[in-house]
Amino acid sequence: MILVNKDTKVVVQGITGKMGQTHTKRMLDYGTQIVAGVTPGRGGQSVHGIPVFDTVSEAVEKTGANCSVVFVPPYLACDAGFEAVNAGVSLLVVITEGIPPNDTSKLVNYANMHEVTFIGPNCPGVVSPGHSLIGIMPGSIFKEGRVGMVSKSGTLTYEIALALSEANLGQSTCVGVGGDPVKGIEYQPVLNLFENDSNTDVIVLIGEIGGNAEEKAANFIKEHIKKPVVGFIAGQTAPPGKRMGHAGAIISQGSGTAQSKIEAFNKAGIKVAKTPTQVAKLVAELIKQPIRK
Amino acid sequence: MNLYEFEAKTIFAQFGIPVPPSKLVNNPKDLSKVFLGYPLTLKCQVLTGGRGKAGGIKFANSFVEAQKLTQDLLNLEIKGCKTMSVLVEPKLSITHEYYLSVTLDRELGVPVFIATKDGGVEVESAKNVVKLPITYPYSAFLSRLLAYKIGLRGEVLNKFANIADRLYKLFIERDLDLAEINPLVEIEGNELLALDGKIVVNDDSLMRQPYFQGWLESHLVDLPPVERQAKLHGVNLVELDGDIGILCNGAGLTMATMDMVAEFGGKPANFLDAGGGSDQAKTLAALELVNQNPKVKVILLNILGGITACDDVANALVDFVKMHKNVKLVVRLRGNNQDKAKEILSNYNVKLIPDLEEAVKEAVKLAS
């Protein structure tokens, strides 16, 4: 398991908002160690029994939180991220969709400078099934096990996790890196963590059209990853020049096509599935023979 | 949001970027109030590229000629986009053309300057293009470095750098995806001017830009009507040419569902991502949008509820079925409150198929 576990102590930024309240409850029910919430001006209150602070630094000081999850509206989310990095958390998960990319760009730079792992934005979060869930993923579809997942998409991750869980193939950790063109953590560092994780046997990489992150990941896998990888690319039927929901999902000037990504996967020896169910089938075959090289 | 050339130039001028004198004309009669001398350049204002090649730029040597050409341009339609008005400028004698833009580079994750000394063509085909990442914190020396790197020396280096500096500030302050001057021209007397400009405003930033409030609706003219309507509803819709209407939540799952329809021999009629956390009203609006397409023979609804509550979706389906009794529906609803949804739908003739592959196959069967 990577990035989050039972010891991860979480502060929820925007805990008094509708999203913050709903998902704090769900995360608590899952067993996540939520230790604090932050909403400026609401210090001293509590949400689902969790103390609310005015600032992240106070929350960190009083509760020992080492991870922040951000449920703050788009135009305030970047500032919330800066505050969390400044307060000294080591993991920052930003769920918010619709953050102006120029804001994200500055936050990525700031998080890198302080060596903070930044997941998102516009992402479903990260879950180590049975241990800790940070974000908005529906906990019931995940199952503890030995498949590591990394994905740009939320609901597609749920779909594939569901197919895996139904085939009795549990997951070590599932990481949603988010669908924005500019984001914090990319595929490579996550793949590297899975490679060195003794609880992960097979890796599932879920990509989609737009940009060239999947091509880069494929090259990285070819060079550095010995564990078997199953790939899935969404958007084979997407027309060029149209933004397909996610801000980053667009084929522009012939680059970012599903075909190019699938070819890169094939060249890197990654098995490519055509449907979520097929992902589970390929994983099942590979898990019997864990070493590829 | 793409802006018209005249809007881009107005904004350039606000940020101190020199532009030629101009007048916007909506009727040939208005030319009698234009005092820019002859010859004149007449440029149709459309929200699409390739204007020059499509005959959207004309030159007039007299009032009579200008009137005729203005009328021709006002009637011109380029790639389905109507001409909005005509921008009239004096014809300049140009000694050199440069290219300059600022955009966010998704791979580097930072804004970049893109420039070349050999401008005047599309930047994809231009030579000696310099791409300079703009690191934080920005300082004006980067603009000078850019001018130096494209090979400028002497007085023009400072003039070019000054424009690049202002273009970057504009890019940041107005939350743009693209600020482009092509061409940036040098005229007699070594003066630099933005002869043509393109601005793309970042859609996610529109709400915090008072300057652009209310602009979106009048700037979606390059989209098909249904896509425009969807955008104003806050729903992501892209029209395709098949007959299976698709409604899902989440971009990745929507694309994967389209791909599966194709994989099993069907043709998707659209991409529609209703987004996470859609309520009853938004789901109903989305269903209506999909159903508007006359080619749609069956609607495949695939919802995996994370933030979205399945019972809200079920209630929207009930409303929809009451109004459209003959529409074929295949519904796959899983996740949050799925049992409640099943109960709500049990009194109506809506087929629920929990397995995604089975649901897709059923939709393909019903469409053929």
Topology of helices and strands:
The complex is a heterodimer of chains A (293) and B (368).
Chain A: E1 9-13, H1 18-30, E2 33-38, E3 46-47, E4 50-53, H2 56-63, E5 67-70, H3 74-87, E6 91-94, H4 101-113, E7 117-119, E8 125-128, E9 132-135, E10 144-151, H5 155-166, E11 171-176, H6 187-195, E12 202-208, H7 213-224, E13 229-234, H8 258-267, E14 271-272, H9 276-287
Parallel strand pairs in A: 1-2, 1-5, 2-4, 5-6, 6-7, 10-11, 10-12, 12-13, 13-14
Antiparallel strand pairs in A: 3-4, 8-9, 8-11
Chain B: H1 5-14, E1 23-25, E2 40-44, E3 57-60, H2 63-75, E4 77-78, E5 81-82, E6 86-90, E7 94-105, E8 110-116, E9 130-133, H3 141-149, H4 155-173, E10 176-187, E11 191-194, E12 197-201, H5 225-233, E13 236-239, E14 244-248, H6 251-263, E15 270-273, H7 280-292, E16 298-305, H8 310-323, E17 328-335, H9 338-345, H10 356-367
Parallel strand pairs in B: 14-16, 16-17
Antiparallel strand pairs in B: 1-6, 2-3, 2-6, 4-5, 7-8, 7-10, 8-9, 10-11, 10-12, 13-15
Helix pairs in contact in B: 3-4, 5-7, 7-8, 8-9
Explain this structure.
The complex is a heterodimer of chains A (about 290) and B (about 375). Chain A is about 35% helix and about 20% strand. With about 290 residues, chain A is an alpha/beta fold. Chain A has two domains: about 10-120, Rossmann fold; about 140-285, 3-Layer(aba) Sandwich (Rossmann fold). In chain A, helix 7 (about 215-225) links the parallel strand 12 and strand 13 (about 230-235). By secondary structure, chain B is of the alpha+beta class. Chain B folds into three domains: about 20-90, ATP-grasp fold, A domain (Dna Ligase, domain 1), CATH 3.30.1490.20; about 95-210, D-amino Acid Aminotransferase, Chain A, domain 1 (2-Layer Sandwich), CATH 3.30.470; about 225-365, 3-Layer(aba) Sandwich (Rossmann fold), CATH 3.40.50.261. Chain B has helices at about 5-15, 65-75, 140-150, 155-175, 225-235, 250-265, 280-290, 310-325, 340-345, 355-365, and strands spanning about 25, 40-45, 55-60, 75-80, 80, 85-90, 95-105, 110-115, 130-135, 175-185, 190-195, 195-200, 235-240, 245-250, 270-275, 300-305, 330-335. In chain B, strands 7, 8, 9, 10, 11 and 12 form a six-stranded antiparallel β-sheet that branches. In chain B, helix 3 crosses helix 4. Chain B is elongated, with a radius of gyration of 26 Å. Classes of the chains: A alpha/beta (about 290), B alpha+beta (about 375). Chains A and B meet through helix 4 and helix 5 of A and helix 6 of B.
